[in-house]
Amino acid sequence: MAATSEATAAIHREQRFDRPLFISVILLLGLGVVMVYSASAVRAAQDQNDATYFLIRQSVYAVMGVVAMLIGSGINYKFYEKLVYPFFALAILGLILCQTPLGRTINGASRWIGVGPITVQPVEIAKLALVLWLSYSLAKKSDRIKSFSIGFLPHLLVPGVLILLCLAQPDFGTAVVIAVVTFALLFVAGAKLAYLMLAGIAVAPIAYYLIAGSEYRLKRILAFLDPISNRYDHGYQLTQSLFGFGSGGFFGTGLGDGLQKFFFLPEAHNDFIAAIIAEELGVLGIFGLICLFAVAIARGTVIAFRARSEFGTYVGFGITSLLGVQVLANLAVAMGLLPTKGLNLPFVSYGGTALIMSLYAVGILLNISRSYSGEMDAPAIDRGTKNRRRASNATGEAG
């Protein structure tokens, strides 16, 4: 009887998933659908002769995303170890196809592949593919992570390929996100801090050249430093976003009663949807939004560090970092704390591929949360650290 009870308890532990993460993401998704409709209805009525045009599409994307999340939560995360290279190759192929006749250029950027009515943004697939590849490689080389040629350099060169393909679109914002997530995973994996600092120093002049050598990026920096003086040029979006934040007050103007969506703020339902939330729902709305993201990111971090394997830890931390960096960057841009970039707000902004892939990534996190038992297992990162120490000691004794 005791054995049966223990087996039942073990099965229960295996089947559970992280409810706070799931609930916070669903609430963000619901808020996103509502705010996309509020932010886009005027534009949709004029451009598409249907005020619900973006609402219907976002609702379909949300349903597809939830299905993807449930599928992701049901697939054992260790299965991705077998798909790392095919998945990564598919992502590379997608980014290359963006530069072919299959690619679609919108606002001067070739970031989409279109086949008939179907449009896909390959970079959203590439970001998850990179996290999976880095996690697999770092876990596989955990005992040699301190080595420059084996543990460090390859994990810079491979992401560098994705960064170059992003810059070719051009998509500087995503290139920065990829770089930050790569450095974060290397740091967590135990790479030498000196290598990370030297790599950062080496990348700095390249970033400066990419900004200073591009007229429109340089103008964005100038607009960021003084948005009001540049409000009729490259500072227009930022200025209108700040007006939205300023006019909302504590309680907001009321859902649907904002003014910025009346063709004052471009991309009101996409990159700058946070400004519409601030205008219509006020400080309370933005505070609630930040709290929901804080819960999701905190739970993702807990899931990562409780995973049973190093691969699970790195995947969990990589996905959480990927989502967290995008959230911070989007909100910082909307509030004038960072120069304007084309990064959406996960789960909230309008979009198809980005929304579905973000929710699928959350599904992977939920699956990782199903696989651990906090009462029985030590965090994988602790076991990995012990393994590396044993390997280091053995090397020292052999020497």
* Rg, Cα atoms, Å: 22 Å
Number of domains: 1
Number of helices: 15
Instruction: Name the helix and strand elements from N-terminus to C-terminus, one letter apiece.
Output: HHHHEEEHHHHHHHHHHH
Mean pLDDT: 83
* Quaternary status: single chain
- Helical fraction equals 55-70%
Structural class: mainly alpha
Strand order, main sheet: write it out.
1-2-3
The termini sit apart by: 54 Å
Give a short account of the largest sheet.
3 strands, antiparallel
Specify the overall morphology.
globular
Spans of at least 5 consecutive residues whose pLDDT stays below 50 are: 1-14, 373-379, 383-399
- Number of strand segments: 3
In percent terms, what proportion of residues is strand? Answer: under 5%
Care to describe what's here?
By secondary structure, the protein is mainly alpha-helical. It has one domain. It contains 15 helices and three strands. It has helices at 2-15, 19-47, 53-74, 84-97, 122-140, 148-152, 154-167, 172-189, 193-212, 215-225, 236-248, 273-306, 310-334, 353-371, 380-398; strands at 103-106, 109-115, 118-120. Strands 1-2-3 form a three-stranded antiparallel β-sheet, with helices on one face. Helix 5 (122-140) packs parallel to helix 8. It is globular and about 55 Å long. The N and C termini lie far apart (54 Å). Residues 1-14, 373-379 and 383-399 have low confidence and may be disordered.
Write the layout of secondary structure elements.
Layout: H1 2-15, H2 19-47, H3 53-74, H4 84-97, E1 103-106, E2 109-115, E3 118-120, H5 122-140, H6 148-152, H7 154-167, H8 172-189, H9 193-212, H10 215-225, H11 236-248, H12 273-306, H13 310-334, H14 353-371, H15 380-398
Antiparallel strand pairs: 1-2, 2-3
Helix pairs in contact: 2-3, 2-12, 3-14, 4-5, 5-7, 5-8, 5-13, 5-14, 7-8, 8-13, 11-12, 12-13, 12-14, 13-14
